[in-house]
Amino acid sequence: MQGLFLSGDEFLKGQRAKVLLLERILGQVFSACDVVVQTGPVPFDIVGLPEIAFPIGFTAPATGPALPLGTIVGGLPYAEDRLLSVVGAYQAVSDHHLRRPADPVAPAAAARRAAPTLRLTPEEALAASE
Amino acid sequence: MADVPTPTDEQLDVWIRARLQIAGVDIEQLHPTLTDPETGSPSQAALLASVRTFLG
Fold first, then answer.
1. H helices present in B1-56, as ranges
2. Model confidence band, residue B36 (pLDDT cutoffs 50, 70, 90)
3. N or C: which end of chain A has fewer CB within 10 A?
4. Eight-class DSSP state of A27
5. Quick check: A5 and B54 CB within 8 A?
């Protein structure tokens, strides 16, 4: 739907910007490192570079259940084996990927049956108030 | 040259509906405000908001 509102020259300009971004990532970013830790899939997914997502821990809220946290690591073209090796090494010394939250506790059948009636007849209300 | 005023949401909606109509897309097939729970089809309002965000 959104593509209907993109003109041809805008599309071509976007394609050229993608190539420029890819050149900068490959030439500048990866000249200094092997993989890149990211907070989101953009822009590696836009330029077609491989990424891998994996859990790195859990939140520590004041109330409510702890929720899983993850991150994304991106790599060079066709370097999926390197990404898998990096995450494999991380998971060999951590256990976030093995932890599961406790199943939520369902109320007992007796407790469900004993739940208060939501509507009282006038007679029931009078009897309850006596 | 004077700055071009930013179009309002209502003006954008008129243009979006016209452009879709030219392309043969009739968004009147969608419910005005409710998402279809069975098919997941968006409402007209949600579709227009999505395209407005894209254009912005």
1. 9-22, 44-55
2. confident
3. C
4. I
5. yes
